[in-house]
Design goal:
By secondary structure, the protein is α+β, with helices and mostly antiparallel strands. Strands 1, 2, 3, 4, 5, 6, 7, 8, 9 and 10 form a ten-stranded antiparallel β-sheet that branches. A hairpin with a 2-residue loop joins strand 3 and strand 4. It is globular and about 80 Å long. It starts with a helix and ends with a strand.
């Protein structure tokens, strides 16, 4: 009977040590990912690949690849679709959210959780003024909110290219 309890105790001890080793490896990977996210945001050098659009009206639209928002130094480059109501459309507009412009009022603020950021900036392009706000999480996932006085707001979800 004592042998049976001894085997069970040994098995439990081995299981717990295996779990702690697995958690330590996961923690090291998480720490490296958080560090990458922090470095990219602080350097103003990152790209977010968008995989879903969330218009104000209707349901989530899952997107194919090729849509992204890129931050490079003092400029932002966007190639995003738009689903929603436009109040004013410039002549010859193609309907998407597309720009390659210098950012105004850029701010990147760390959140309470390590590796999470709130990024905000403004973009002025002919016919549109955009206010972009992003939440970037420690795992690289992000949400992007696009507000304009000429269109209904729309949000996107995506992931930072690491």
């Amino acid at each position: 009977m004592k042998m049976k309890y001894s085997i069970i105790l040994v098995f439990l001890a081995l299981s717990l040590s295996a779990c702690s080793t697995q958690n330590q490896v996961k923690s090291e990977k998480d720490h490296a990912l958080i560090q990458q996210v922090n470095e990219k945001v602080q350097a103003k050098d990152f790209a977010i690949e968008v995989n879903a659009a969330n218009p104000m009206r209707g349901k989530t639209i899952f997107l194919s690849s090729g849509y992204d928002l890129i931050i490079r130094n003092d400029s932002a480059i966007a190639y995003l679709p738009y689903y929603g109501r436009a109040y004013s459309v410039p002549y010859g507009g193609d309907g998407g959210i597309k720009f390659q412009e210098k950012m105004k009022e850029y701010s990147a603020t760390p959140k309470k959780n390590d590796g999470e950021w709130s990024v905000k900036f403004k973009i002025d392009v002919p016919g549109y003024n955009y206010m972009i706000s992003m939440d970037i999480f420690s795992n690289g996932k992000s949400t992007i909110n696009v507000n304009s006085d000429q269109r209904e707001s729309i949000s996107f979800s995506g992931e930072m290219k690491l």
